[in-house]
Automatic annotation (TrEMBL):
Protein name per UniProt: thioredoxin-dependent peroxiredoxin
Subunit structure as annotated in this protein's UniProt entry: Monomer.
Location of the Thioredoxin domain: 2-152
InterPro entries assigned: AhpC/TSA (IPR000866), Peroxiredoxin_AhpC-typ (IPR024706), Peroxiredoxin_BCP/PrxQ (IPR050924), Thioredoxin-like_sf (IPR036249), Thioredoxin_domain (IPR013766)
Swiss-Prot/TrEMBL GO biological process terms: cell redox homeostasis; cellular response to oxidative stress
Keyword Kinase (UniProt): no
SUPFAM superfamilies tied to this protein: Thioredoxin-like
Organism (species): Palleronia pontilimi
Length: 152
């Protein structure tokens, strides 16, 4: 399911720190990245990559949001442990993951299960998905997203 060139599904989700974030209320472009789970090696590398580049995204006028099904409390532990500077949103019921088509069947070591596919969406100031990355490999990903964000 591709969302490229479509209106980004709107949502309101709780974030670390206790506030709610509504996608359509954010002024300017947004990088929305979905990740499987807090404090796992790949997810930590990705979160640290976006944290390291958060000032570069801000300079480009872009807000970065990370989403997983973990609770706000788990997000806060993850944020504090690694010094993360990006908003982490909790999609505990999975509705937003479903809307973005990232809740998928995964196969690991011959065992299938449902989980979040690592994916990133670049949404322009008008709320349209202008770029999407599916089955993301972490090395080099943040730089690629930043380059696309700067080109908006």
């Amino acid at each position: 399911m591709s969302l490229q060139d479509q209106e980004a599904p709107d949502f309101t989700l709780p974030r670390d720190g206790g506030d709610d974030v509504t996608l359509s209320a954010i002024d300017g472009p947004v990088v929305l990245y979905f990740y499987p789970r807090d404090d796992t090696p790949g997810c930590t590398k990705e979160a640290l990559g976006f944290t390291d580049a958060v000032d570069d995204f801000a300079a480009a006028g872009v807000t970065v949001l990370g989403i997983s099904k973990d609770t706000v409390a788990k997000h806060e532990k993850f944020r504090d442990k690694h010094g993360l500077k990006i908003a982490l949103l909790s999609d505990s019921d999975g509705a937003v993951c479903e809307a973005y088509g990232v809740w998928v069947e995964k196969n690991m070591y011959g065992k299938t299960s449902m989980g979040i596919e690592r994916a990133t969406f670049l949404i322009d100031a008008d709320g349209k998905v202008v770029r999407e990355w599916r089955k993301v490999k972490v090395p080099g990903h943040v730089d690629e997203v930043l380059e696309a964000a700067r080109a908006l």
